[in-house]
Design goal:
About 0% of the residues lie in helices and about 45% in strands. By secondary structure, the chain is mostly beta strands.
């Protein structure tokens, strides 16, 4: 198999409500290959959002922002990320302990 030269993800950004899942994250490796599981997923801020390493399913845990990375498994180190913003519909506390109020924020990227 040829070494991965780049990774792309869709969507590039999304907004979620705390407590919700996003099932549509997609990663593509280049050059394309016949490999079905050529990436693993991880979050840079698991206080805000977690992600299933194999499926890319994203769960919004708290209000804030996290980068959700898809990294090639071939050892090339190539990766791309989705910026995931999550909001709580009600007054709450974010990962940093600050007060958050986002009533009326619409959910996008679904």
């Amino acid at each position: 198999m040829a070494s991965v030269t780049s990774v792309s993800v869709t969507p590039s950004a999304l907004t979620l409500t705390v407590g919700s899942w996003y099932y549509y994250a997609k990663a593509t490796v280049y050059p394309t290959s016949e490999c079905c599981n050529c990436v693993t997923w991880h979050s840079d801020n698991e206080c805000v959002a977690t992600v299933n390493a194999l499926t890319g399913y994203i769960y919004a845990k708290n209000a804030g922002t996290a980068k959700i990375y898809a990294t090639a498994t071939d050892g090339s180190g190539k990766s791309a990320y989705i910026t995931a913003k999550s909001f709580d519909w009600f007054q709450g506390t974010g990962c940093d302990g600050s007060s958050k109020s986002t009533a009326g924020v619409r959910i996008s990227g679904l």
